[in-house]
Amino acid sequence: MSKRLLIAFVIVDVLLGFAVYRGYQSWSQRDTFREAADAQQAANAEMRELGTTEFPEPRDLVGFTLQDQNAEPFSNQHLRGKWSLVFFGFTHCPDICPLTMTELAQCYAQLSAAEQAQVRVILGTVDPERDDPAAMAAYVGKYNDDFVGLTGSRVALSVLTKQLFVTYSDPAELINHEDHERAPHQPMTQAATAQSGGAMAMPGGDHSEHSEQAELGDDYLITHSGHIALINPAGQFHGVIRPPHRDADILAVVRKLLTDPAN
Is the peptide bond before 187 cis (omega within 30 degrees of 0)? Predict the structure, then answer.
């Protein structure tokens, strides 16, 4: 065999080997992508079974300024660095709020100290007329000293609530008997939604609300949505946990969020 022919065979072998390698690499990458997509779909399905929806892309929040239970300013920057579980209700709520706060407290108590350091539980009020910082401090303190209570003017609150899909009625428009008797899943009236700051409906058709007959004076109740908003450590709206809330499900969601490398 001539030297020139031998060189040609060597070149062909090298090119063939390179082509095989590139083909294998491409096949391997497709297989890896397929496995990753399948794993993500399985993770999403598991979160849905836990009553949780994660947005495809987290949403930035427009700036807001409220007060915490210590009468200190609380704004976007205070949502950074931890996972925040944000629930909106009010301290005079007879059912949904204490039930939800109890589940959140039981979930939080089951977290390790290291996990608690990465999680923040927040109760925001939809009743700022009665829920000043002192009232919020007394209320959240019944569940856990680490919990945060937020209040502010109705306008200031609406800046955040409408971004988190929170709807609630204005106590100035007292709930009458006809409202109390309406179908449990009938949406809030247009006027009530408007009073909540024009908040959007919950994604996926969640209209979980509770309503009671309100009385004149200081003894009134407020209709409000019941989901928990998830804010990621970058301060972005990451998703929602839909009611009914159970501590075991919330705990499973929190631990998945803390251990997911994508977060």
Answer: no
Three-state DSSP at 210 gives strand
DSSP 253: H
What is the reported pTM? 0.72
pLDDT tens digits for 38-89?
A: 555 666 789 999 999 999 999 999 999 999 999 999 999 999 999 999 999 9
Could you tell me the CA-to-CA distances from 98 to 20, 65, 125, 143, 249 in Å, in that order?
A: 64, 25, 13, 9, 17
Tokens 């949502």 belong to 79
The DSSP bridge partners found for residue 122 are 86, 148
Q: List CB contacts of 219: < 8 A, sequence separation 6 or more.
A: none
Q: What whole-number distance in Å separates Cα of residue 166 and Cα of residue 64?
A: 15
CA distances from 61 to 57, 214, 229 (A): 13, 33, 12
Of the candidates 207, 222, 199, which has an alpha carbon nearest to the alpha carbon of residue 91?
Answer: 222
pLDDT(230) > 70: yes
Neighbours of 28 (CB within 10 A): 10
Q: What is the rounded distance in angstroms from the CA atom of residue 7 to the CA atom of residue 19?
A: 18
Q: Is residue 190 predicted with pLDDT exceeding 70? A: no
* Share in percent of the chain as helix, strand, coil (round to 5): 40, 15, 40
